[in-house]
Design a protein that fits this description.
alpha+beta; four-stranded antiparallel beta sheet; three-stranded antiparallel beta sheet; 38% helix
């Protein structure tokens, strides 16, 4: 029986009153094993910078201005570089490719600086927009919506993404009953 490291110990066997093994001797499921047990249903990559390269004419001056202002106000070129790096990280989903994966158990969006993932059994609502699908753990709209869940941008695979989300969500609902 594979369990995670921080999971509670198995209950005592009432028949022979054996103690569970100590935590360092319990088997642990690694992320590699979970990927093997959770095959990919659909994957795609979107690089918004390639879709809208003209926006770079606005992004580069903003990054330079942020770096210059940070260096000037804080008195250190390193601080300016740090400020520009923070801005680049904040708009990382525009600057760098984002890889989306729909698996049997999870949906995820991964970029250079971040990874968002939600298990299908935690998805309470799905919001469809022109650009993508929002998978939310919240059952009704809330101010927290922007900070919860995963937003899957469509790209050229709009119909495939919608169909896969419907199928995987229905499958998770059947498994949860």
């Amino acid at each position: 029986m594979a369990t995670e490291r921080n999971s509670p110990p198995p209950p005592l066997n009432k028949a022979n009153r054996e103690e569970p093994p100590p935590p360092h001797k319990r088997p642990m499921t690694t992320s590699a094993q979970s990927y093997v047990n959770d095959p990919v249903v659909l994957t795609w990559t979107i690089h918004r910078l390639r879709e809208r390269p003209r926006m770079l004419l606005l992004v580069i001056p903003c990054l330079l201005l942020t770096g210059f202002a940070g260096a000037r106000m804080l008195g250190s070129p390193l601080a300016g570089l740090f400020a520009a790096g923070l801005l680049a990280a904040a708009i990382g989903d525009y600057l760098f490719p984002v890889r989306y994966e729909l698996r049997r158990r999870t949906a995820s969006a991964a970029c250079l600086f971040s990874r968002q993932e939600i298990p299908w059994e935690r998805v309470r609502s799905v919001w469809l927009s022109e650009e993508g699908v929002k998978l939310s753990p919240l059952s009704k709209p809330s101010r927290l919506e922007a900070f919860r869940g995963v937003f899957l941008r469509f790209g050229p695979e709009r119909e495939q993404v919608i169909e896969a989300v419907r199928h995987l969500r229905a499958r998770a609902a059947e498994a949860g009953e």
